[in-house]
Amino acid sequence: MIGLVTAAVARELDSDLPLLGAALERAGTQFHFVDWHDESVDWSQYSMLVLRSTWDYHLRRAKFLQWIERVSQLTTVRNSFEVVQWNSDKKYLGELSTAGIAVVPTQFVESASEILLTKPVMDVVVKPSISAGSHDTFRYRDVAAEMSTVSSHIARIMKSGATAMVQEYQHGIDGAGETGLVYLNGVYSHAFRKGAILQHRPDMSNGLYAAEDVGEREATDAEQATALQVLGFVEQKFGAMPLYARVDLIPQINGEPQLMELELVEPSFFLWASTGSADRAAQAIIAANR
Fold it and tell me: Which one of 61, 246, 266, 280 is the catalytic residue?
């Protein structure tokens, strides 16, 4: 029996779950949808737990990590505790950048006074290093002019236990959007396009994540090469490819891809955006469960 792990607040919002469940049924594999915070669950009944829409984890990351560490003593959790611990704090971007991977330039700061202003007018995004769904993420089109608000924002982030990230807004995303590449057991499955969430004020009306404009897309050779570079780093760091990975890329000024985010905890696969992707995901899960 496989457990597809979600959260009570996310279960009805996850468009992947019914598609993945149907694909597992077609393959003759038994599974349950189960909430990670449900204390009544006997986790030992599952041969493997696959983290899917645990989209509230960033609000209580310590408890989430404790849960994974505990249930990992009873069954296999994918992705693993070590991977989730590393990937659930976006300070990993600094590590990838140091390794020579093209990453959106990021300053990690503990106060507004640490922000390095490289232009007279800097359009930046400020967000917590521990976050999901654009939670507490804001764009400041002239950060120097809004420094008082930025200072309060950073103080709030620090109080939450995260580090503040400051990234110059990448205007290439406004036209091209971002490309999300989904890999299953290290093998490319499909890609999708996501529109620029912060081009305008994001819609957070569902209370959990910013509304997204998602569509079909074919990844370019350059995007796939960058994604494989990122995954190669992960494989070397942890000794194996993760069961699933989503590599989110946006264009640099010169058009070459750069990493915006690496999703190894609970990414949407947007299975509806690619014919056959639900069956590929199911087969990857089944193979990992053998």
Answer: 246
